[in-house]
Amino acid sequence: MEKVEILKNIIEARRSTFPKSYSTEEIQQSVLTEILNSANFAPNHKRTKPWRLKVFRGEEKNQLGVKLAAIYQVTADPQTFLEKKYIDITDKIAMSDSIITISVNFSGLLPEWEEIAATAMSVQNMYLTATAYEVGCYWSTPGMINHLREFLQLEENQKCIGLFYLGKV
Question: Ranges for the Nitroreductase domain (predicted)?
Fold first, then answer.
């Protein structure tokens, strides 16, 4: 198959796949490494490579789920707090093989939008690579990410802009 056809098929097959559709099969470390490596080939002005990706698996992943649920419990308005949503947070994390936190490192050399755009392109590369490996994934931006600075040990010029869920389908 011609390269253009292969690329076209991967782009057209790319979908957001949610944790409820993931199997319990583990993603091989070599596949996860390839997915992460593809992020490094995103275009970025002045080669700032502003994306900061942190992988959570196993017990670390469970701790992230507990942290997100605790943030929801503390920050949700008591009138709108939903017990089901609280439980769903940890369940969604548990159903995922891996979670990658997506953060941007603002260099100060470029407009912030350019570094956010470069980070988004790095995530698109991960989406396409995951699709090629038949790994389900999706990028989520819950409000709780705004409270992860300390947990992720982000620097002052960094901001978490999402969670990237992955699982075999």
Answer: 11-168
Per DSSP bridges, beta strands 158-168 and 51-56 are unpaired
How far are the Cα atoms of 53, 112, 142, 144 from residue 147, in angstroms, in the given order?
Answer: 17, 20, 10, 6
Nearest-angstrom CA–CA distance, 47 and 123:
16
pLDDT, averaged across the chain: 97
In angstroms and rounded to an integer, the radius of gyration of the C-alpha atoms of the chain is 17
- Measured in degrees and rounded to the nearest 5, phi and psi for residue 113 equal -60, -35
Number of domains forming the structure of the chain: 1
Note down the domain range covering 11.
3-168
The Cα 50–Cα 139 span in angstroms is 17
Task: Give me the helix-helix angle, 58-75 and 83-95, nearest 10°.
Answer: 160
For tokens 């978490």, what's the residue?
160
What is residue 103's predicted lDDT score, i.e. its pLDDT?
A: 98
